Amino acid sequence: MVRVDVVHQPIWEIAADGALFFLPEDFAIDGSLAYIEQQFYPHLKNVLARHKFLGKSGDSFTLTAPVKNDLVQFVFIGQGQGATAAARLPHENMELLRRAIGLGIKELNRLEIKRTVIDITRFNLKNLGVDQAELIRQLTIAIRMSGYEFDTFKSEKTSSKWNGEVILAAPSFPQALVARALFEGRAIADATDITRHLADLPGNIATPEYISECAEQIAAQYNLKCTIFGRDRARELGMGGFLAVDAGSEREGKFVELLYSCSDKNAPTIALVGKGVTFDSGGLSLKPSNSMSGMKFDMSGAAAVIGSMRAIAEIAPNVNVVGITPLVENMPSGHAARQDDIIQHMNGVTTEIESTDAEGRLILADALAYAEKFHSPAVIIDIATLTGAVVVALGHFFSGIMSRHPDLQQQLITVGQRTGDWLWPLPLHDFYQAAIKSPVADISNTGDPKYGAGTVKAACFLSRFVNNTPWAHLDIAGTENGIPDAPHLGKGASGVGVRLFVDFVKNFKK
Ligand code: BES
Ligand code: ZN
Ligand code: ZN
Predict the structure, then answer these.
(1) Looking at ligand 1, which residue's alpha carbon is closest to its atom 17?
(2) Ligand 1, closest atom to CA 457?
(3) Torsion sign across C-alpha atoms 79, 83, 85, 90
(4) Which atom belonging to ligand 1 lies closest to the Cα atom of 277?
(5) pLDDT exceeding 70 applies to what percent of the chain?
């Protein structure tokens, strides 16, 4: 794992074998760069330009110099647009910086640097749209996420994972601010690690029981209230959707609830609900094998909720948060739900199962109804790898967001821009509700193909399970892994949702 620390010294007072510079296209030779120019490389800007380093996104170049008894590598990474370039918005500059960080970490690994410094007083806060604390949080998270790789089961660890140390040099930043920002950044980075690891674990290991045990351990460690139940209690509660998907599997499903309570008795509650299909074979509506690969990631929503709850417990915001994850395996068998089956959900709504592969909405239906009934939350946000259609619509950079509450939707989009968990809205409009009519039950779990809009139809289905609570649905089928041009996300599951949820909860105002 990459370690990140902050010190209150200028970089040349810190013992290190590397110094990493992120330079925008209009960079000036001042501060720490002027020091390097004076000490080691006269005409530094020309030297860099001669080597085609212009600060563009994707540029990188290294110079080596003897410092004291050692060799130090100065690694220059292009940060893209600079402060004088008007075209980009601050949050887009921040995303370019995250990518540059990913590239930088790869370079440190390639050059076998053990310990590197970054002069963070060089960053233009206005250009990046951050204050000092946010800069430290975002750098810490991006550095840590860049170094993630799922190599638990490799006998020989690959060389693509860097285990070094990054020292952020911030001589002028206030001590207390730095300590808190670093603490929060680390808490979020730790949470993304856990979320990504859970998501990357295959279905034969990360079973509903295994994941519920992880949640239980986190609860014990961070003083969260944890409730776990299986088939029997689900039957008592009338969770027909959960039971129908669970029925086909040899491994019993688990419904997990993690509760963080703050000290304020009158504080509102935020409910986070995550789809936890530990493997989605499609059930009797079996997926073709090429579409089935990658379906171990179908519990990424649940993993995001569980990881977020850990960071939330650490950061201890002044709001209550309940994390709810229905965990099941969607398998075909003699016990499995059939096409044409009619089931009844916890809130009484009946569903015709037209496809057993549209299973996520079946389990989320009961989880949403459960969240509203037992927690009367101020808001509900669900997160799910729900539809292949969202990948067609938005690709891999933006998760789809659907909500009937424009304020909540906008708030989440803004938090997404700040944190790098980008969201783009799709219309959860009443016109689409007609698409999920069923001739034999209240609703169908696939809906009429002539309406198209598979992602919105899934959201329409979920909407029948939330009454009046402000609610937003996030479809992360395109963002849970395999995001192109994202070196800052390392390798494997992306951990989508954790940065978003923790920031949203931390800044929540009723
Ligand atoms: N887990 C899938 C959605 C998915 C697809 C996630 C690709 C990640 C990548 C979901 O359960 C599913 O199978 N959805 C169906 C719905 C259809 C049967 C109405 C889909 O999108 O094809
Ligand atoms: Zn499915
Ligand atoms: Zn699924």
Answers:
(1) 358
(2) 19
(3) positive
(4) 1
(5) 99
Which ligand gives the minimal distance to the CA of 281? Answer: 2
Indicate whether residue 339 lines ligand 1 (CB < 6 A): no
Cα angle value 47/53/56 (rounded, 5°): 150
**Pairing between β-strand 320-330 and β-strand 276-280 as defined by DSSP bridges:** parallel
Q: Taking a C-beta distance cutoff of 8 angstroms, is the pair 379, 471 a contact?
A: yes
Token pair of 309 as six digits: 């709850």
Which residue CA neighbors atom 13 of ligand 1 most closely?
A: 357
The CB of 359 under 6 Å from ligand 1? The reply is: yes
The ligand 1 atom nearest the CA atom of 385:
6
**CA–CA distance, 315 with 184 (Å, rounded to integer):** 6
One DSSP character per residue, 168-218 reads EE-TTS-HHHHHHHHHHHHHHHHHHHHHHHHHHS-TTTS-HHHHHHHHHHH
Is 231 catalytic? The answer is no
**355 in contact with ligand 1, CB cutoff 6 A:** yes
CB of 389 sitting under 6 A from ligand 1: yes
- In the three-class reduction of DSSP (H, G, I as helix; E, B as strand; rest coil), residue 474 is classed as strand
Structure tokens at 396: 């891999």
**HSE, side-chain direction, 13 A CA sphere, residue 330:** 32
**233 phi, psi to nearest 5 deg:** -65, -35
User: How many residues can be counted in the chain?
Assistant: 510
495 torsion bin: left (phi>0), alpha (psi -120 to 50), beta (else)? left
3-state secondary structure 55-94: CCCCCEEEEEEEECCEEEEEEEEEEECCCCCCCCCHHHHH
Strands 165-169 and 115-119: parallel
Q: Does the Cβ of 244 fall within 6 Å of ligand 1?
A: no
Contact 97, 151 (CB under 8 A): no
Identify whether 287 is a catalytic site residue.
yes
% of the chain exceeding 90 in pLDDT = 93
The pLDDT confidence band at residue 300, using thresholds 50, 70 and 90, is: very high
Helical packing angle, 90-110 and 132-146, nearest 10°: 40
Looking at the CA of 477, name the nearest ligand.
1
Q: Do 210 and 254 form a contact (C-beta atoms < 8 A)?
A: no
Global pTM value: 0.98
Q: Does the beta carbon of 354 lie inside 6 Å of ligand 1?
A: no
Taking residues 501-507, report their average pLDDT. 98
Tell me which of 196, 254, 275, 361 is the catalytic residue. Answer: 361
Average pLDDT score over residue span 372-393: 98
The per-residue pLDDT for range 100-134, each reduced to its tens digit, is 999 999 999 999 999 999 999 999 999 899 999 99
